[in-house]
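Summary: Need help interpreting a holo structure output

Steps to reproduce:
1. Submit the protein chain below together with the SMILES for zinc ion.
2. Request a joint structure prediction with the ligand placed.
3. Inspect the structure token block that comes back.

Expected: a single structure record containing both the chain and the bound molecule.
Actual: see attached output.

Input attached:
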Amino acid sequence: MTGLKKTIIRSGLETLYFSGAHHLMRPFVGGIGVILTLHHVRPPRPERFQPNRLLEVTPDFLDGVLSWLRRADVDLVSLDEMWRRLSESDVGRRFVTLTIDDGYRDTLQWAHPVFKKHDVPFAVYIPTSFPDRLGELWWLVLEAVIGRNESVSLLVDGKERSFECADVPEKRRLFDELYLWLRSFKTEQELRDVIRDLAGRYRVDISTFCDELCMNWDELNQLAADRLVTIGAHTVNHVMLAKVPERSARAEMEMSRSVIEASLGLRPDHLSYPVGDATSARPREFRLAAELGFKTAATTRPGVLFPEHRDYLTALPRVSLNGEHQQLRYVRVLISGAATAVWNGFRRVDAA
Ligand SMILES: [Zn+2]
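--- attached output ---
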């Protein structure tokens, strides 16, 4: 994320908090509940170049959030209970549902003990190629290539281009630029081709990221045995579903559920869309998830839940606990619904 965008988000959250506006707005924008999104939960790392840091929070921060939620006037509920409340319009008490995407090993090592300590249910969405050790964590390949080299060459629109990235500010700038460029591709295949080309040129072994960072099936079994844990599907190959043909999108969702069922002996009723923004999950995907019988499917479109989401159970918004903004006061503003209401122009449902 660019520095300017980070500053705008932070100052917006600060304004809503310190003005007290999030309290005044809550009856109108707070909705009936919130789904929170996490990725990595692990201790802070010393590296200065951490372009994916927004995807991680510390165990202490999670501990603080759960302590506060336990004292707040909300119910902490599983995905199944959230689905029941939404579909039965049982909206008397506000609720929060916690979710973790991708199945990193730190979910088991660092997050799970914190959830157990507070007796809070949570869901983990698994892209099955990660425990199968075939996953391509392409955003980490990009980080490694830029982090380990002083300049990077690659093919841009068929032409060989070279970029300097000797110091940390240059690395950050180049990461942002290339990340935005990769995300602008119309197809997932184009993105993967560039990443494989970069990994080959700079000798980054894509497969090591799964081994190092993601739970294997034994670890997932261990996690899934806890009554607090719901295992959800997150496709096979962690693809931006809107950027693949319909039959592939359907197969990605359906296969991931079958592979989890075969490996863990449980059939996921819930799905989250990889990347999950409006370029990755669109009405076609919302329809496919419903046709395949998923009870709910979560995007990363920001927002809280309203009674109207009963009719959009496979297009649910979430609120991300962003590692760049690890302050309890920001979480309070986000959960109040005030920040996302402002970002969404006070529109309650965004499923287009
Ligand atoms: Zn993901």
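--- end attachment ---

Reviewer comment: The chain has a mean pLDDT of 93. Residues 101-102, 234, 238, 274 surround zinc ion (CB under 6 Å).
Status: needs-info
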